[in-house]
Amino acid sequence: MTDVTNYRLLDAGERALVVEFGATVDPAINGQVLALDAAFVAARIEGVRETVPTYRSLMIHYDPLVISREKLVARIADFEATHPAAPAPQARWIFPCCYDPAIAEDIAELAALVKLDVAEAARIHASGAYRAYMYGFAPGYCYLGGLPETLAVSRRATVRPPTPENAVLVGGGLSLIATFSMPTGWYVAGRTPERMFAPHRERPFLVDVGDELRFEAIDAATFAALESRARQGETIARREALA
Amino acid sequence: MSAIVQIVLAGPGVTLQDSGRWGYLRYGVTQAGPMDALAHEFANRMAGNDPGAAGIEISVGGLDLVVAEAALELAIVAPGFRVARDGAPLPSMCLVTLAPGEKLSVRAGESGAWAYVAPAGLIDAEPELGSLSMHVRTGVGGTGLKAGDRLNVAEARAGLAEPRALADFRQAGEAPIRIVRGPQDDYFDAANFARFVEGPWRLAARSDRMAYALEGPRLEHAKGFNIVSDGIALGAIQVPGDGWPFVQMADRAPTGGYPKIGTVIAADLGRLAQMRPGASLRFAAVTVAQAVEAWRQARAAMEAAGLAPAGASALSSEALLSRNLVGGVVSAQAWSD
């Protein structure tokens, strides 16, 4: 029996090791990443400080004075030898999202780019079943795969002014809920009253990588009402257990 | 007993830092932590604190603080900076106890970019996501120390009013900054990797806690400059489309989409962090095993260091220079230990 390894090991210095399963954004590759991540999280190996799952690779931050690279590589091989299945999504999150052009600042521009009217562009965005691939960039910035092809526009050539908080963005074939008000090269397709990151909430980050996300269209009045409830600490997004 | 550290003046970039915010990189949260980890840990050890405890990190913008309520011992690790108590120079690396009302000043000197002050005791503040480290860009942990801020120091300890100089454990010299190749060194051909190592590179003015930008020979990518985002380690050297690398420092984002040609080794990160814009540097590639051994030795030197041998500090050029620059009246015994 031959055991073909399907990953590459790349050193990111002497205190981090990258286990790379591929070079593309692909649910199957991401599933392998999450399987290995789950194995490391469960094993709580001494000297492994933290693991960071991304689209296509797992970064393992370790203390080489506690666990050697050689031992770490052996643990990875052990985990992979069992051909771990990608963990099933634990939850489906339903995020209310307002696509009213008064709030969704770029929805008209986005719709024009793909030659649709605003209502149809909004309907298509809300029809997607999204996958939380990875966090990055800043707290709570979670990259979502599963954007319907119709809306897969490239990023802007130049960045637009700062978006409102909790803007639902589209760009480069992905969607994203922005935590903060920042300039961006993406398009503001909508806005959710929910906060992806609330440091003093019991769950500072609601969504785990691998979870499924859906958007539910709401009007501007509902948005305003839900947003004020969110500000008072209420969790607005709904969670449905899947596993 | 608790004491108060009152911030009287703080330049931009003065923050509280413990050993960093671990466990949240997977949610996009930056680790932060000290720019010069060994200097930070040395200050804590000398103050009798937990090695990873929170202390004040001071930028070239400088800091004045006043101690209130009770006397408080401070471990100061500010190599190259000018340090003074009520205007009288102190060694730039020392243990000293300030009486209530006494003021400590730390100012940029002839070298060094980051200085540390660890109060002997526990800085009593509310951690955010498990850490007191401030990440100014996102506000996680706070947006920096400002004039008027008061830090409560629980279990405050006092020692000798007479300053005692600390030994300098740091690796000296102009040696190249050592790196481990990768993780995306295959995005560069041999000629461009050689050009990267040779430099020479100049540290650009736009360098900060997030990244140190380098200017020098432009590097060409063999396979483009976009990769599908992956993790970014401390010290990772990204090369964006313009061909000028930047080194990812403590406040880096946890992931990114530019190829990383190499990673600065832990043993040399503090030395790089302490360089100022305009400084010239080059790199040298080492193996992971060599990097681990260098880190072991750098840590061992820091852990073995303590008070400076008696009399040593009075003769150091740093002390003499600091005396000249501060221009205060110095009593001979102020420098002895």
Structure description:
The complex is a heterodimer of chains A (243) and B (337). Chain A has 243 residues and is α+β, with helices and mostly antiparallel strands. Chain A folds into two domains: 74 residues, 2-Layer Sandwich (Gyrase A, domain 2); 151 residues, Beta Barrel (Cyclophilin). Helix content of chain A is 24%, strand content 26%. Chain A has five helices and twelve strands. Chain B is α+β, with helices and mostly antiparallel strands and 337 residues long. Chain B folds into two domains: 163 residues, no CATH class; 119 residues, Cyclophilin (Beta Barrel). Helices cover 17% and strands 27% of the residues of chain B. Chain B is built from six helices and 23 strands. In chain B, the strands form four sheets. Chain B has an eight-stranded mixed beta sheet with strand order 22-15-16-19-18-21-14-23. In chain B, strands 7-6-9-4-1-12-11 form a seven-stranded antiparallel beta sheet. In chain B, strands 2-3-10-5-8-13 form a six-stranded antiparallel beta sheet, with helices on one face. In chain B, strand 15 and strand 16 form a beta hairpin. The chains are: A alpha+beta (243), B alpha+beta (337). At the A-B interface, strand 2, strand 3 and strand 4 of A face strand 14, strand 17, strand 20, strand 21 and helix 4 of B.
